[in-house]
Amino acid sequence: MILGINLGLWLIYLFSLLAHDFHNSIAEMHYNLKSQSFEVSLRVFTDDFENILKKENHLEYLSLSKAKTHEPLIESYLKKNFIIRNAKNQALVLSYIGKEIEGEVIWLYFEIPYKEKLKNLTLQHTILLDLFDDQTNLINIFYKNHKQTLLFTRRERVQKLEFPT
User: Fold this and answer.
1) Backbone angles phi, psi at 126, to 5 degrees
2) Distance of alpha carbon 111 from its chain centroid, rounded?
3) Residue 40 phi/psi, 5° resolution?
4) Which DSSP state fits 93?
């Protein structure tokens, strides 16, 4: 029995060393017709997100599990790195809602109001792209019964959003 527990702990340790061989985020963005806004849920690795916030804000220590101390830093980072632009190339206003930490990942929630036609919009999704060369950001965008999936990398930082007319 002890051998089984030790082996289990050893496997958990090895998995934790290997678990971060890749760098990605995944997001879902729904356009809510009633509120006329994009509702976004973004999942990133907590330690990666803490590292980018430390780098961006020249901090030696930062823990996102501490109450709401770092909410302004999170909001500022999101506003710089997740930008929807309208046909006139104007950035839409992002409104940060909050976060949830689940083990090794953090969920970030925000919305972006938009009351005009869903036409000629672009999305810049550069979350963590300046931290890791191999970072990829996948986003699934939902509007009515339409789904669009986009992949963002260091080379593909801005993409066009397409909605059925």
Assistant:
1) -115, 25
2) 12
3) -120, 135
4) P
